[in-house]
């Protein structure tokens, strides 16, 4: 599921700068049985993007270029 980042509050922008990602809400795609925590993080090519943590370690991938941008989530 790909999403453009919604407007972030001052606090969220600060947390994004400090930690590299910030929790922004929940995602649920078509056919999914559960909600997943959504994170905003910055891709070097696409700016601030939104995705959910993937895999056992919760890596965050840019949904547009598929590169790993941030670990942990």
Write structural notes for this entry.
The protein is mainly β. The chain has a domain at 11-23 and 39-45 and 52-73. Helices cover 14% and strands 38% of the residues. The chain is built from 1 helix and 6 strands. The chain has one helix at residues 10-19, and strands at residues 3-4, 21-27, 36-43, 47-52, 60-61, 68-70. The strands form 2 sheets. A 4-stranded antiparallel beta sheet has the order 1-4-3-2. Strands 5-6 form a two-stranded antiparallel ribbon. A hairpin with an 8-residue loop joins strand 2 and strand 3. It is globular. The protein starts with a strand and ends with a strand.
Average pLDDT confidence is 84
DSSP strand (E) fraction? 35-45%
Strand order of the largest sheet: 1-4-3-2
Low-confidence stretches: none
Radius of gyration (CA) equals 12 Å
Succession of helices and strands: EHEEEEE
What's the helical proportion of residues? Answer: 10-25%
Distance between the termini: 17 Å
Structural class computed from helices and strand pairing: mainly beta
Q: Give me the count of strands.
A: 6
Summarize the main sheet: 4 strands, antiparallel
As an assembly, this protein is: single chain
Report the total helices: 1
Morphology: globular
List the helices and strands and how they pair.
Blueprint: E1 3-4, H1 10-19, E2 21-27, E3 36-43, E4 47-52, E5 60-61, E6 68-70
Antiparallel strand pairs: 1-4, 2-3, 3-4, 5-6
């Amino acid at each position: 599921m790909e999403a453009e980042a919604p407007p972030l509050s001052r606090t969220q922008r600060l947390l994004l700068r400090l930690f590299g990602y910030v929790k922004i809400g929940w995602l649920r795609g078509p056919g999914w049985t559960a909600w997943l925590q959504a994170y905003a993080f910055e891709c070097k090519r696409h700016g601030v993007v939104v995705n959910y943590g993937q895999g056992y370690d919760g890596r965050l991938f840019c949904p547009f270029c598929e590169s790993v941008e941030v670990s942990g989530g």
